[in-house]
Amino acid sequence: MAIKFPPRRGLVAIARLRAWLRGHELGLVTLAAAIGAAAGICVTLMTVVVNAAHMLIYGIPFDVRLSAAERVPPLAAFAAPMLAGLALGSVDAWRAKKKSPPAVDPVEANALRGGRMSLRDSLLVAAQTVTSNGCGASVGLEAGYAQIGAGVASKLGIDLHLRRQDLRMLVGCGAGGAIAAAFNAPFTGAFYAFELIIGAYSLANVVPVFAATLTAALTTKAISGAPYEISVPEAPALNLEHYIALIGLGLVAAAVGVGAMRAAALIERTLIAAVPFRRFRPVAGGALIGVMALYTPQVLGAGHGALALDFYWPLTALELIVLITLKLLASLVSLASGFRGGLFFASLFVGSLLGKLYSIGVDFAFPGLGLETTASVLVGMGALSTVIVGGPLTMTFLVLESTGNLGVAGGVLAASIAATLAVRLTFGYSFTTWRLHLRGETIRGGQDVGWLRDLTVAKMMAPSPPIFPAEESVRAFCEAHPLGSANVVVAVGEGGRYQGLILVPEAHSIALADGEDNDGGPVGLIARLPATSLHPDDDIRGALDLFGAAHTDTLAVTSRETGQVLGTLGEAYAARRYAQETNGAMRGVLGGG
Predict the structure, then answer these.
(1) Is residue 212, in this structure, part of any structural domain at all?
(2) Is 200 in contact with 447 (CB distance < 8 Å)?
(3) Residues 506 and 397 occupy one common structural domain
(4) For position 383, which CATH number holds?
(5) Beta-carbon neighbour count of residue 175 at 10 Å?
(6) 29 within a domain of the structure (yes/no)
(7) Scanning 45, 238, 487, 519, which has its CA 20 to 30 A from the CA of 93?
(8) Which residues constitute the domain of residue 259?
């Protein structure tokens, strides 16, 4: 007979578990490892479903990747993306009708929401990603992997009432564990978590993150093997001239990546104008993908099979240019039309083609340089992926764990740093953060800036400030507010609308200078900053900027709609709160309490 614990005893057990997890580092490490195992299982399940869909729809053998197929049936190339697009478009139109907010991805969750994500939305994104890749759309599964891994982690952390920094760290564990499982690359997954999701590297996060990524990689390897494990030939050591040439490749990758990001917005606007109905936009995108798939199946799916095939296949410069153009176009059309997925592996594939093309150009221009094609391909993969995804160390470790060649990894790091600097100077965003920018966000990564938005003027202002009618005289003001009663009084007009700030000492000095026979005129005439005020929804950074621009110690807080006075805020108090929150955020990053 099963033993049923009384509800009270169960609640006590849960409370003790929460206290242990929150108060002991071993507890967080154990939880991180469990999240890594869950991420590995999710990666395996998603991969199995997608591979089965490819075999069923396109009739390819189980050991052949879709993008490596010699050809695909024309009917499948058109029908599969278009029908899947109709399903995805219908869901998207339904959510738009319900005015459902877009799903929060791990980067946005950690940057703006303290790691809080919806597991239901994450499951939906994962299902949409599987549908998109399974039908042949030119997107990868990595975004879905990271989404579901982070969603599971966030759900567990929220249920256990973990602190903000612990929750953000666990979201990084889930996303990083998923990437580690996908590539059998624990270091890659860990630095994906540090660079892209958590937004900072700290000793306090090292053990939990690596526990998650290592567990995730081992879990997937034990079940079925990593779905995206990259195998490449040995590359010779690099000299100084090679490093210089590969930095040039990094700059070329930056130019290609920025061009792709610019083109993404243009393609999206074009599709919206051409197909105004949200439901049918993915159908149009599926038709375009089908046209390109008739030329080469390498545009289908993420491109894993095509990468392995083209690594060894001799291709001319013209063929490489055509493949690069078609794959980028297919990927951007897929995303712009409404298919879900990422460009992680697509950028690796296009980067490998770009590296091979660059090698042909270098050999033609400098035949004595001796730059190996393998090194160029690996560096092209890392550099372009850094531009698209972000994270130079992430891509460096991916190459290092794939090849074991520290010399080539050094070349990848040099080119990735050059590409990162070039993009930041000329564009400012990776593709991951650029898509958030198109939605109105301005974040550049997973660094926690959500507390800045949470700390609003409404939470800091002093309500019910002293007010006085602007049409009353200076003399009447002085009688109502003697020296020492207040330093600043808010002048209001009809309906309590803001008219400016009256300095009490200044009003008394005017009254004294005018003498007893003169009432000094309307006090509103001496009110300062009549057109400058804060609003309750302004954040702390905007408030401090306005204080600096207005050169004042106090500002009124008014309703944005009616202009009525709601309170006042002092610069000293706002600066003190900003310093307190900044110190708290830094302690969280460095592992303090």
Answers:
(1) yes
(2) yes
(3) no
(4) 1.10.3080.10
(5) 37
(6) yes
(7) 45
(8) 240-447
Considering the domain boundaries, does residue 122 fall inside one?
yes
β-bridge pairing 554-558 and 488-492? unpaired
Q: How far apart are CA 308 and CA 314, in angstroms?
A: 12
Coil/strand/helix, residue 439: coil
CA gap 477, 291 in Å, rounded: 78
Query: What φ, ψ does residue 65 adopt, rounded to 5°?
Result: -75, 150
C-beta of residue 500 within 8 angstroms of C-beta of residue 467: no
A 10 A CB-CB count for 93 gives 16
Name the helix (H) or strand (E) containing 111: helix 106-112
- Give the confidence band of 484 by pLDDT, cuts at 50, 70, 90: confident
Q: Which residue, of 401, 425, 447, is where some domain finishes? A: 447
**Helix or strand run (H / E) with residue 514:** helix 504-514
274 domain residue, yes or no: yes
pLDDT cut 70: percent of the chain above it:
89
Closest CA to 152 of 117, 185, 182, 127: 117
Note the pTM of the prediction, 2 decimals: 0.80
**321 and 299 inside one domain:** yes
For residues 15 and 63, membership in a common domain is answered with: yes
Q: Residue 587 above 70 pLDDT?
A: no
Neighbours of 237 (CB within 10 A): 13
What's the rounded Cα separation, in Å, for the pair 80 and 290? Answer: 9
CA-wise closest residue to 337 among 80, 76, 85, 134: 85
Q: CA-to-CA distance for 204 and 587, rounded, in angstroms?
A: 10
Q: What residues form DSSP beta bridges with 564?
A: 497
Indicate if 117 and 131 belong to the same structural domain: yes
Both 509 and 421 in one domain: the answer is no
Interval 300-325 mean pLDDT: 90
The domain tally of the chain equals 3
As a whole number, the mean pLDDT across the chain is 86
Lookup: tokens for 304? 């894993």
Q: Which of 447, 474, 503 is the last residue of a domain?
A: 447
HEC states along 160-198? Answer: CCCCHHHHHHHHHHHHHHHHHHHHCCHHHHHHHHHHHHH
Instruction: Provide the sign of the torsion angle of the four alpha carbons 368, 371, 374, 376, taken in this order.
Output: negative
Which residues, including other chains, have CB under 8 Å from residue 296's CB and lie 6 or more apart? 323, 326
